[in-house]
Amino acid sequence: MFLQTISDAAGATALPQPYLLFLGDTVEPGFAKTAFGLRDWAPEKCTAEYALPGATVTTGLPAMSPAQAHQAGARALLIGVANSGGVLPDNWLPALVEALEAGLDIVSGLHMRLAESPILADTAARLGRRLIDVRHPPHDIKIGTGRKRSGKRLLTVGTDCALGKKYTALAVARGFADRGVDSDFRATGQTGIMIAGGGIPMDAVVSDFEAGAAEMLSPDSAPDHWDVIEGQGSLFHPVYAAVSMGLLHGSQPDCIIVCHHPGRTEMLGTPGYALPSVEEAIDLNLRVGGRTNPAIRCAGIAFNTAYLDEGEAVALMAEESRRLGLPVADPIRRGAAFDQLIDNCLS
């Protein structure tokens, strides 16, 4: 059996591909963001999906068993669920054992290491399969220094978790590249790491080292180079605010894009906690981010309008842009509003 973490891997080719996306028994789409991220940003790496009875979430990919997926060319079952706490539920284990027996390695972004399950460790050892964990940070992270670094940085922040910070960062990085801007996408979560082939899983870093990890992720660079950094959580979230603050301080962003899901009223996974307004999110992130970069500014807003038709989405974003005095765009729909957002980031 070979155990490997992404920090040991040379890059994307270190992960066995393509993938069978495992959805477990998930009924909340927000918890399947890993599967959706791979489907949307690395479709060439995805063969099919595999879900347990009771699951109501689907990526729209063909449904296959592990054996069928292996025959179709898949080389790993990738756990496409980021559940609360990042645990490995016992009722998933038979399906994961089935995947190992079908000839697939397993790739996981959970906090819990795959080899912590005796049955998975024993089965992988017996069959010569790999258990690969990507949600484990490098061992050489130092505490933050607060030193101003060369180069330019953009960080996506949010009013909540699981509403588009990764998608926005990927779209902006692609938008920069389309304009010939020297830039890199910097992954800070398991899905981004699986897409990019490298990064640091910020929610697995000890709190004292969060800012240092962000500095390590985005080091000194050329004056006109942009690092587009994937945000995590929300400063307002009662569970995940700690990682958001450390990432904000350590990234020292020159500009932020606030990501928001219009129509969502409560923080995901914490009923009773109301979502802040976009204005509150701008204000708090600029005040906290100004501690390590006094020149920080908000370049615009990214709306997740997946539940609206085109006309409704365009009208809402235009109205909010006028009200807020900033570009408002859906990075998936792109269009003229997204071009204005890119313009304001680079201005």
From TrEMBL:
InterPro entries documented for this protein: DgcN-like, DgcN-like_C, DgcN-like_N, P-loop_NTPase
Family annotation (Pfam families): DUF1611 (PF07755), DUF1611_N (PF17396)
Domain D-glutamate N-acetyltransferase-like C-terminal: 143-336
Domain of life according to the entry: Bacteria
Domain (D-glutamate N-acetyltransferase-like N-terminal) ranges: 58-137
Protein name: EBNA-1 nuclear protein
The organism of origin for this protein: Sphingomonas bisphenolicum
